[in-house]
Amino acid sequence: MTYAPQLLWVLAAVFLAEMTRDFYHFLSHQWTPLQRLHNWHHRAYRKDFSPVSTEVYRQAQLYNDAPEAIFMMAVMALAAGTTQILGLWVGVIYSAGFLGSALLRSRGLLASSDITHEPGVPLSGIPSYWLVNRTYHWRHHFDDTNAYYAGLFPMSDKLLGTALSLKGKTVAVTGASGTMGRALIKALAKAGAKPVALTTSSRKSAGREAASREIAGAVKTMTWQVGQEQSLQAALRKVDILIINHGVNVMGARSPQAIEQSLEVNALSGWRLMEAFLETVDDRTGRATKEVWVNTSEAEVSPAFSPLYEVSKRLMGDLINVRRTDAPCIVRKIVLGPFKSELNPYGVMGADFIARCVLFLARRDIRNIIVTINPLTCLMFPIKEVVQAVYFRLFLKGRFPKEHLSKEQDVQRKRKHS
Ligand SMILES: [Zn+2]
Ligand SMILES: [Zn+2]
After folding, report:
1. Scanning 196, 246, 331, 416, which has the fewest C-beta atoms within 10 Å of its C-beta?
2. Gap from CA of 140 to ligand 2 centroid (Å)
3. pLDDT of the chain along its 418 residues, tens only?
4. Which residues are catalytic?
5. How many Cβ atoms sit within 10 Å of the Cβ of residue 54?
6. Domain boundary among 107, 136, 160
7. Do 188 and 83 fall within a single domain?
8. 96 and 242, same domain (yes or no)
9. How far is the CA of 223 from the centre of ligand 1 (A)?
């Protein structure tokens, strides 16, 4: 017997044990007898994960964590026994460790909590992509208890489509009166979100009520102007997810005005709006629940037969990657292929279909949502993202040098008051 395959089985055993935990957890939210036991876990914590009381915390360890670990042990023992694979027994030992710590905590003999329930500290990071962290799991307790079931590997949530809950979330969409905006708002409303339409459309002159009736599914319509992004900041405080989706396509134009308009609408306005939104993210709940999605389009890497559209969308895409190196919440990109709209006469896919795909992938926590028929985008885009992420992380410094700080603050202050 060689050791290498057994080592792989050891890793597989940990993965399978965790998947078993997630299955038990999912079942605990569906099946009443288990639900009664699992409720102890949900009742045990305040919003900063400090225990509601020592008594309830200990009961939760006994009635939820311990049986969960026993279930994991039983399933792993069954798997190891029936397949006769030695490495899988590690899954039993791994699960037994959780049983041991649950029993010790239930008797007050182990003071420390597990990492995802660390008590009394603010939400420090954004929900992690590869492994479940505290902010990720916080959402299961306090955002939507019918989502975010994963304990260590987010794989189970990706399979179930529960890696992001849209239920009851206020989602503001710019470019709301355009083809994609309307399709997104319709799909969001269907998914249980509360879409807010942000539009610069002149149709606003028909009155706010008329405008909201025009955009099917929107709970509210607000008008704004490019260049006045800060005026939306008060409204953005109440927004959970901001989808920056407005854009302009000057097609073959190349005049200075066309350049300015493309940069201003497709890149700078989106960037300013993103910054205004990011300022509203706090470390009490915002890091966990707030998100920005930006529709940069596949023009970021592929031809859109409109050079200035490509230039401006690429700039926006690059600015997002700069911001992603230290953004206080999740920033997703929506990278769409050609769809039929007023902006794009070359479109081939339907906007409603694309909007449904976007939400399908977002619910699986895909951070770069690519929906296209162009295989080159699927190949080029991830390469560009990885290379640029590494490059930006290497060469972007966290803070301004001290001597520049006061000058920069001065500029910001002037901008705010102008
Ligand atoms: Zn928990
Ligand atoms: Zn639960």
Report:
1. 416
2. 7
3. 567 788 899 999 999 999 999 999 999 999 999 999 999 999 999 999 999 999 999 999 999 999 999 999 999 999 999 999 999 999 999 999 999 999 999 999 998 888 899 999 999 899 999 999 999 999 999 999 999 999 999 999 999 999 999 999 999 999 999 999 999 999 999 999 999 999 997 554 444 445 545 789 999 999 999 999 999 999 999 999 999 999 999 999 999 999 999 999 999 999 999 999 999 999 889 999 999 999 998 999 988 889 999 999 999 999 999 999 999 999 999 999 888 776 666 677 889 999 999 999 999 999 999 999 999 999 999 999 999 999 999 999 865 555 444 455 555 555 554 4
4. 309
5. 10
6. 160
7. no
8. no
9. 41
- Give the count of domains, the chain: 2
- From CA 290, how far away is CA 322, in angstroms rounded? 19
Output the CA–CA distances (angstroms, integers) from residue 148 to 141, 162, 291, in the order listed: 9, 6, 16
Q: How far apart are CA 218 and CA 197, in angstroms?
A: 6
Q: Which ligand is nearest to the CA of 134?
A: 1
Tokens 């060689």 label which residue?
2
Decide which of 160, 189, 221 is a domain's last residue: 160
* Radius of gyration of the chain measured on its C-alpha atoms: 24
Give the tokens for residue 233: 């900041």
Starting from the CA of residue 37, give the closest ligand: 2
Beta carbons within 10 angstroms of residue 19's beta carbon: 19
